[in-house]
Amino acid sequence: MEIIQLPEDMQRRAGECRRARRSIGLVPTMGALHEGHLSLIRRCRAENDVVIMSLFVNPAQFNRTDDLERYPRDLEGDSRMAREAGVDVIFAPTAEGMYPDGYVTYVNVARITERWEGAARPGHFRGVATVCTKLFTICRPHRAYFGQKDYQQSLVVRRLAADLNLGLEIVVSPTVREPDGLALSSRNVLLSPEERRQATVLSRALFQAQAAVRGGERDAGRVRAAIEAEIRSAQLAAVDYVGVCDPDTLEPLVRVTGKAVAVVAASFGTTRLIDNAILDPQPE
Ligand code: AMP
């Protein structure tokens, strides 16, 4: 397994792979790897000749410096896990390498970035869209892998790849959860034992909403209110938003007549978590 730091070296390496007619899969990450990341890497390994994992805690997508500073980092552990999962190349640039002096170019995806994470974290999706565009042009993947865990992000990346004719396939993989339902996240290690215990309320509220819709509930406002009430029942949870929305536009729904997505964000102490679930009145 190779570790490449300079964008120009990575781009040269990707060019060699393309000339050799080898398909390239990219898994963008911010490191502190867990089973969620590994599920993307394994799928990428199965579907491509060359697996690149990028590892970059992108300052441009953090709207709070305290969040950026305390974001978990573990290059040694990540390298070992990545190698074992079949990564060929880790692209781990520095912030200066990605945004050198004089850097002024940003990618702005409109509309689907306005609500939810976009409203709660100003500038977040501009940072995400910019870094993904750069990673795509540097690593030149045929396919790039993202988790459903960050549902709005996956829509933003899909939109961006289509709108800018980037010529790659965006693959979105299901959320990996702990046995008690909590969605895996690099931020989970920041929770105290009691916060960790109460954080299961997010997935519980979402699973209850799925069951309600499956059981015939069609009033999106009632589904939304029930999710919020369930999350608020956890003493340490501070709700940021709860939405029941169209799965493509993320506009809030009045009725759940087809597939919908419920998105939630809440803080437990100083740690902010997000989760989501597809609500389907007619699951296969
Ligand atoms: P991050 O390192 O948090 O930026 O995540 C890198 C990629 O892994 C993103 O595409 C995330 O959506 C995905 N991811 C994070 N957590 C999970 C999870 N629990 N299940 C599946 N994918 C995940």
CATH superfamily of the largest domain: HUPs
Mean pLDDT score: 97
Q: Oligomeric status of the shown chains?
A: single chain
| Number of structural domains | 2
Using the 3D structure, state the CATH architecture of the largest domain.
Answer: 3-Layer(aba) Sandwich
Summing up helix and strand content along with how strands pair, one would put the structural category as alpha/beta
CATH class of the largest domain: Alpha Beta
**Strand content of the residues, in percent?**
15-25%
Query: What is the overall number of helices?
Result: 11
What Rg is obtained from the alpha carbons, in whole angstroms?
Answer: 19 Å
Unreliable stretches: none
Helix content: 25-40%
Listed once per kind, the bound small molecules are:
adenosine monophosphate
Query: Shape from CA axes?
Result: globular
Order of helices and strands: EHEHEHHEHHHEHEHHHEEE
* First-last Cα distance: 41 Å
The description of the largest β-sheet is: 6 strands, parallel
What's the total count of β strands?
A: 9
Question: Major sheet: order of its strands?
Answer: 1-4-3-2-5-6
Q: What is the CATH fold-level name of the largest domain?
A: Rossmann fold
Quick gist of this model?
The chain has 284 residues and is of the alpha/beta class. It is built from eleven helices and nine strands.
Keywords:
Pantoate--beta-alanine Ligase, Chain: A,domain 2, 9 strands, Rossmann fold, six-stranded parallel beta sheet, 284 residues, binds adenosine monophosphate, 2 domains, three-stranded antiparallel beta sheet, alpha/beta
